[in-house]
Amino acid sequence: MTAAAHTTPSPHPDAGPEHWLSTRPRLVVASAFMLFLELALIRWTGSNIVHLSYFTNFVLLGSFLGIGLGFLRVGRTARQPYYSPITLAVLVLVVTFFPVTVDRQTEGVLYWTSLSTAGPPAWLILPVVFAAAAVVLMGPAELVGRCFPELDRLEAYRYDLIGSLTGIGLFTALSFLSAPPVVWGVITAAAYAVLLRPRRLWARAALVVPSLVVVAALAAETLTAGALWSPYYKVTRTHFAEQGVEMMDIQVNGIPHQRAVPAVKRLEWERQYALPYERSAAGRLDDVLIVGAGSGTDVAIALSKGAGRVDAVEIDPKLRELGGTYHPDRPYDDPRVATHVTDGRAFLEQTDRKYDLILFALPDSLTLVSGASSLRLESYLFTREAMEAARDRLKPGGTFSMYNYYRESWLVDRLASTVQAAFGHKPCVDVVTQAGQQAVITAGLAAADQACGQEWAGATAQTPPPSGDDRPFLYLKDRTIPEIYVITLILILIVSLLAVRAVAGPYTRMRPYADLFLLGVAFLLLETKSVTGFALLFGTTWVVNAIVFAGVLVAVLAAVEVTRRFRTPPLPVMYGVLLAGLVLAWLVPNSWLLGLPVPLRAVVAVAVAFLPIFAANVVFAKRFADSADGTTAFGANLLGAMVGGCLEYLALVIGYQGLLIVAGLLYLGAFALLPRTARAA
Asked: How much is the CA Rg of the chain, to the nearest whole Å?
């Protein structure tokens, strides 16, 4: 069946008259709204449900399921999807009244959600969020899918991509402006009103009431919590006095994160803050680098110790802003301090300055990089390669030190082993308190440059090996996928199978598009590899992530435009180009890319990463253009992307580079399932 022959369903009595927007602008608006809503859900739910700080993929997978179901639902009904705003309102109310936060008595580093929480348990709230995200996103996806039969296949896909880029751009702009969620809610309500065009009284009620609930709840949160919305967190602060000392407590996403305390009191109360200076044999502090400067206490301590210059690196602009405004010592006002709002690993790789002391000051982001399974904002800061980068930035006689509440003795030993591997000698390890494993790890450029109170005993058979840039999972002790992830992913797949059957009917409807399903699985793995690769090369900042996601969509759009306007090679040839691109990406090591100047690194990284992405989307575009049922074909591809989101967790075992092999096998499977007519065309 050709695109022209694919007919739209007859109008349902409740569907109303033709939409006032023509197909193309309606498709752009619906696609932009779909992606904007997905990003907003990931961002907002993660700020109120602490489990989602470590399961960002959970909402993403629910979104993919809902989008796929929305496309498969096209043609089965002409009713407007008012279930979407209603479900969104219910979700917002549930999360607002039953947030999952950390017990205020709990301190330390949080990982794998092993923490004391207040609110519904993970087994209850996570399925609710997953199912709600799927239903919410199914509505906009259905509206997008209804536009596809009215246009040529690739033209519809083209406008869908333009809309997606618009949605990313809008959300990125709001992140830059630190807009609170009430702004997201207003935009969401407006988009529903434009797209659903309610005319009957009951339809207006089904839209207006949920929209008011969402906007009111988000407005109340914005006004009562007094939160600042950084690109990474919901940041709240409280001011209090302890022993006559004015201090500020900072929480991010409901998790106790930092305290702005005068340097003299911090040194008096907690010994770990003084140890890096005591363990430095040279004692020079002409140049100091602090990674994880936060609200400024570590900077204030360095200044009190006589630092001549301090480079303060902090990834979150709002934490730096709070420190500059409220820290009692006003360290950021000191002319000796230079602030750098960027990723710590990226700064180490890009700076030419040398330091007498490099300090990793409790860098613990408490959140994951959105769209990349188990990659935290600071993951690339604790690999062997990162320690080597820190070593290379030290002056002769310089010292490197890190401290935190590590919670597990094996984690202290792993980090000490990593430092030993990078520096070539055992570091000093001071376990300040056994409770919470509060520890300081210090290494001089040479063994003579450190003054240990007691040298580290060394690694044992139970000490996990150092983490590396390919598997930067510091908090994962063994090379395995944690049981909580395995169970969760299996349940997600079971629910997805049942949902597809209930919404879309028999699976035989999608059987002709099995290759497009595998293309979706493989592409998500390819996208994950690109996102994590660029995070390593240029930083895990929100700006880099936004640029990479937008770049992927631009590459997809370029593939569509090339396919529409030019005669492209047959599918077997394009599959060959795709596999060659995967081999090239496998052969080019990150260590070589990191050694290039930043401008050249960007050019080479883009060429290596986006060649297979471009080729994969030429393959998809050619196959999609000839599909008999465009909405079903696209839905199958999106459901494949959801399965790919589950398979991302294989990186915990095989590393991110290994995902290229899995993607290659999936693309070979897609080629094997390619219909003979498409292969011969």
From this structure: 26
Q: Cα(233)–Cα(256) distance, rounded to whole angstroms?
A: 12
DSSP string, 251-298: EETTEEEEEE--HHHHHHH-GGGTHHHHSBSS---SSEEEES-TTSHH
Separation CA 248–CA 447 (nearest Å): 39
In the prediction, which pLDDT does 18 show?
Answer: 67
Q: How far apart are CA 631 and CA 310, in angstroms?
A: 57
Q: Is 211 helix (H, G, I), strand (E, B) or coil?
A: helix
Sign of the dihedral through C-alpha 280, 281, 283, 286: negative
Give the 3-state secondary structure of residue 425. Answer: coil
Report d(CA 661, CA 656) in Å as an integer: 10
Contact 631, 147 (CB under 8 A): no
Give the DSSP letter string of 407-474: -SHHHHHHHHHHHHHHHSSPPEEEEEETTTTEEEEEEESSGGGB--SSB-----TTSPPPP-SSS--T
Give the DSSP H/E element, type plus range, for residue 490: helix 483-504
Cβ neighbors of 605 (< 8 A, separation 6 or more) are 533, 534, 537, 593
pLDDT (tens digit per residue) in 6-38: 333 333 434 444 667 889 999 999 999 999 999
What integer pLDDT is reported at residue 221 of this predicted model? 87
Contacts of 589 (CB under 8 A, 6+ apart): none
Chain-centroid distance, C-alpha 621: 27
Q: For the chain, what is the total number of helices (H) and then of strands (E)?
A: 23, 13
The token pair that represents 100 in the structure block = 């999952």
The amino acid present at 650, given as its one-letter code, is L
The token pair that represents 605 in the structure block: 């990284």
The DSSP bridge pattern shows strands 337-340 and 288-291 to be unpaired
Residue 534: which of 548, 552, 549, 551 has the closest Cα?
548
The whole-angstrom separation of Cα 524 and Cα 526 is 5
Residue 364 has pLDDT above 90, yes or no: no
Instruction: Indicate yes or no: pTM above 0.70.
Output: yes
CA atoms within 13 A on the CB side of 224: 7
What does the alpha-carbon distance between residue 323 and residue 263 come to, in Å, rounded to a whole number? 13
How far apart CA 120 and CA 189 sit, in angstroms, is 28
What span, in angstroms and rounded, lies between the C-alpha atoms of 221 and 486? 34
